[in-house]
């Protein structure tokens, strides 16, 4: 494995109205990782993203949160990747996943975006889908609720009880990728 830095991006929407919503679970995991790095987020002028540099899993890492809306995540991610000369296969995007039960975490590289506009934007901006995804399961909406409305709602009271553990487990999954590589991390996590 290369000795260059990793870029870990937690997806979410900006502003206090979105802070505790399901769609922001990626940004919440990024907060946990920033705590583990021991740094505080600051704005990276060239990308507009919030970022912190440090070491995780024994190597250099840039942990970031885009300050743009989810469907515009690609431009800041690509700007950070260019600035730090990080190839797509060393980018880990942490995001909410409707197609996984709440609390399930899965790792994958490449593939489709499954209707996730943040991933679609990143794939377009990087001109590749060949980056690692840490998928945090938020489950499907109940009944006939529109998925777009569901992801922008806060976690239920039952989900909130388990959320701190889920965020730590999401951060652990990211660290496994950085430490072991994707395949070994998948074997251990899945």
Walk me through the structure.
The chain has 190 residues and is α/β, with parallel strands linked by helices. It has one domain: 3-Layer(aba) Sandwich (Rossmann fold). It is 37% helix and 21% strand. The protein has helices spanning 25-37, 74-83, 117-126, 147-151, 157-180, 182-189; strands spanning 6-10, 42-43, 50-56, 59-65, 91-97, 105-109, 132-137. Strands 2-3-4-1-5-7-6 form a 7-stranded mixed β-sheet, with helices on both faces. A hairpin with a 6-residue loop joins β2 and β3. α5 packs across α6 (182-189). The protein is globular and about 45 Å long. The model has no long low-confidence stretch (mean pLDDT 95).
- Spatial arrangement of strands, main beta sheet: 2-3-4-1-5-7-6
Mean pLDDT: 95
Q: How would a textbook summarize the main sheet? A: 7 strands, mixed
Q: What form results from the Cα inertia axes?
A: globular
User: Class by helix and strand content?
Assistant: alpha/beta
How much strand content do the residues show?
15-25%
| Cα-based radius of gyration, to the nearest Å | 15 Å
- The overall number of domains is 1
Under CATH, the topology can be stated as Rossmann fold
Helix percent reads 25-40%
Q: At CATH's second level, what is the architecture? A: 3-Layer(aba) Sandwich
CATH C-level class: Alpha Beta
Terminus-to-terminus distance: 22 Å
Strand/helix succession: EHEEEHEEHEHHH
By DSSP, the count of extended strands is 7
Kindly report the oligomeric state of this protein: single chain
Residue windows where pLDDT falls under 50 for at least 5 positions: none
């Amino acid at each position: 494995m290369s000795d260059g830095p990793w870029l870990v991006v937690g997806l979410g929407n900006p502003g206090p109205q979105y802070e505790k919503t399901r769609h922001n679970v990626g940004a919440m995991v990024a907060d946990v990782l920033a705590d583990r790095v021991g740094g505080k987020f600051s704005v990276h002028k060239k990308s507009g993203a919030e970022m912190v540099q440090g070491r995780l899993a024994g190597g250099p890492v840039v942990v970031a949160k885009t300050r743009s809306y989810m469907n515009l995540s690609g431009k800041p991610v690509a700007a950070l990747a260019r600035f730090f000369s990080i190839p797509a296969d060393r980018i880990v995007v942490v995001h909410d996943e409707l197609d996984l039960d709440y609390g399930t975490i899965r790792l994958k590289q490449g593939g489709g975006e499954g209707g996730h506009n943040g991933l679609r934007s990143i794939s377009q901006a990087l001109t590749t889908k060949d980056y690692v995804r840490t998928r945090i399961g938020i489950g499907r909406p109940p009944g006939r609720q529109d998925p777009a409305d569901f992801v922008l709602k806060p976690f239920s009271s039952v989900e909130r009880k388990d959320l701190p553990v889920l965020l730590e487990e999401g951060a652990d999954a990211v660290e496994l990728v950085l430490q072991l590589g994707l395949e070994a991390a998948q074997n251990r996590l899945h």
